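I had to read the description of the data format several times before I understood it. In essence, backbone conformation is discretised, so a fold becomes a row of integers matching the chain in length. I therefore recommend that a typical entry be quoted early in the introduction. For illustration, here is how one protein appears when written out as sequence plus structure tokens.

***
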Amino acid sequence: MYAPDYDGLIIRSGTKVTADVINAAKNLKIIGRAGTGVDNVDVETSTRNGIIVMNTPNGNTISAAELTCAMIMCLARQIPQGVASMRAGNWERKKFMGMELFGKVLGIVGLGRIGKEVAIRMQSFGMKISVTVIEISVTVIEISITVTEISVTVIEISITVIEIDVTVIEISVTVTEISITVIEISITVIEIDVTVIEISITVIEISVAVTEISVAVIEISVAVSLLNDETFAKCKKGVKVINCARGGIIDEEALLRALESGQCGGAGLDVFEEEPPKNLSLVKHPNVVSCPHLGASTHEAQKRCGKDIATQIVDMVTGKSLVGVINAHAVSHAMAPETKPWIQLGEALGLVAKACTGQGNGKINVQVTTQGVPVLLEIDGAVFGKVVPLKGNLLIYKSAQNPHNLASVVGVLASAGILIESFNVSAVLDGEQWNIMSIAALLVDLNPLRPHVKEVTQLAI
């Protein structure tokens, strides 16, 4: 996959967005996953590169819940085993004795969107619902903060400002001597290093004891093993387990041991630690019903997820909302109002640097700060009498101190049908000065200006 020019990617589960893809995509701003799981996206690299990762948390809720309910029915009545036996030409009514769901306890681990839908549907079968809450706490042991000093230098500079009034018929030039103060401020960003030492996960039982649960449904996506040898030993003998949430929540080796010993009476698995699974011991077990991750594989869910991710991206771009953002903790600072002036300043610096590339043998120095909006203070030591707002279309050129040069530039713009909105000129250094014009549109070609100026560039902010 190669996406250097794209601003956004919309993917499904089959596309892998690796660190190499992300680092090569220099313009990438958002990765939209049409679905819930983002295991196929390198979220850490995306966050480090300032890229938003977004999924569709609601798109497949109904489909996943219905598959979970189907798994419960299949385990209770051994429907897949009966189908396989019939296809083999057998008639084994006594072998596939099932159980009723009425009056049985359904334990749901994680009562989120899908868990709630499962509970609603299975209550109609007369099942009693038990809910398990997962508490995840993070203990931060070490935080180191480094703050560098802020230095302020005040320099008194006496400069000459040339005010020029341009009309169609005449050009008037006024030279005024003034004295201004330039304040240079150097700030180093605070560096914060946080080391997370311990993550603890607590399982809290609500409603009924685990020994009363006949069917346990996992509906929480956490990257830890919740069902292992210890938890299986506490369960009611013959408990049936369904996992349609995420692979790795159930210790597969422990599950196999529980199935072999009879502690677990059956398992319905739509997800695995490794997909597709290389070890087929569980898949081939006679008391296991397995599917190749079909939770969201319905026409309705796929259509809904595709529509949702497109809508969410449009809402984000238009500033309406941020829904389904996986790395919201990282991008929230970038969206904060107090951060926006600094983001604009960074963008302006980048655009000015890009525009000046190749000018003056690549050694042009500019001083930019922010005053609500980014403003330009000086170029190559030549200070502007008034700060120049870095916004709109700007024509920047260097020329000798000669009013005729300005007339020539105005003539070129007039020939191209481009209006001048504002004009700023710097102090004169060695008989030369920098000129910045805010213009209605950028010139298609700068070559007509080159005979009249020494250096010229333009940019749009």
Notes: The chain is about 25% helix and 35% strand. The first strand starts at residue 8 and ends at 11. The chain has three domains: 8-59+299-335, 61-139+195-290, 168-174+340-460.
